[in-house]
Amino acid sequence: MKKFTKNNNSVARDRALKVFLQASKNVPAYKKFLQEYKVDPKKIIKNKDLDGIPITDKDNYLRAFPPFDLVPGREFPPMVSSSSGSSGRPYYWPRGDEQEAWGGRMHQTIIEDVFKLQKKRTLAIVCFSMGNWIAGTFTLSSLRNIARKNKQLKITTITPGIDKDDAVATLRDFAPLFESVILIGYPPFVMDVVLLAKETGVDLSKLDLHFILAGENFSEKWRSMLLKVAGAPQEVNRAISIYGTADAGSIGHENPLTITLRKLALANKAFKKDLFGEITFMPTVVSYYPDQTFFELVNGQLIFTTQTGIPLIRYNIKDHGLLLSEEYVVSLLKKHDLYKKLPGDLKKWKNPLIVLKGRNDVSVTFYALNIYPENLKAGLEDDTVLSLVTGKYIARTEQSKNFREQVFYIDVELKPHITPTIKIKEIISDAIFRHLLELNSEYRKLFNSIHEKALPVVRLIEYGHEQFIIKKAKHKWVKRTRK
Questions:
Q1: Does pTM top 0.85 for this prediction?
Q2: Contact, 170 vs 163, CB < 8 A?
Q3: Do 28 and 349 meet the contact criterion of CB atoms below 8 Å apart?
């Protein structure tokens, strides 16, 4: 049985064609775009020829037309959010009630089917930025949709945003009034909140904590560490990551099966290779909804079609990944004699999966090779280092003083009350280097060629330094090379 690289769900394909047809009629920019590519919408619909539709992206479509020409009838939807600009300057994304209602349904699935919090009085603490970026306001609207439409879920929402002190005060003073608590936010910031709460004496173990996380990949070791620090059970339905974008809102999410697949891949290298192919880190795996977002895989990149504030047709989000059918995943589990070992409740999750392998444009380029955030995070999650660092770092490359070679710098944030010493620097540098050698074959070849010139230069930064305070949507793991 083959993994599928195109979505073979006929209902989903028909919906994608409907989005295309409506955009070709009602979106001024898309009409002009199709004319420039000499595409006849009638032929596309008649032949159901998605491959005949040109691929769009920010450069060839979104930035090529005035914003009002990109929405149906030039009527701008009621809400706008900005992308974080992690791969360039921010873009402003409109969204309507339909997208927010969908966000409510997806969050409801997580709260009901994953966390199983029906009828429990639950406090949702939203720690995403409540500024222009989508995560905070979209999550808030999703939770409010649930509260309005589903009385079985007793959800109360509070929004401290990215104010750590407010978030900790909520955990200390208000959260104990509820039967369950969901802490929602960007993974490094949520870890900051949990660490500060524990340091200031908040007994998190009494709160029946669950987590909804979004914004970046993290390892299973990091997930386990978060639950341990929070005093929460090490269960596969406690901390769930969402795959969401400013472009399309909520697309998919982890569930107990996807998390179990990662854990099995960690323990079984042959299964990992069959499931993910050759990869230097553990990718995020999420379940998605083909009736909402139609995915294709083109040259290793994820291409999707969906009805959003700006209808996106065969849109290249620049994420690299895989599409896996439920049948294909089951066949691999059986091949490696793992399927029969799965608990029965894990077998109920039937949606297709996206494997997210990251983006080339947020890696560090060092001597023309890519070093990915996951390669560096692995070193900071080493057992010798975990008690010393928060996990946040900033990587950059610069020219040496004589301009003859590049130097690879990594600034690492220490945990509270850890004083930088030469010994600590040696421990952290060694862990980062060992994991780089193990995980990145290109770096390994580079080191064998140029030796000590390839060694990262680690600088230890005390906790709370301004460069590590998350002020916007995300922490900047990579600092671009100075000119």
A1: no
A2: no
A3: no
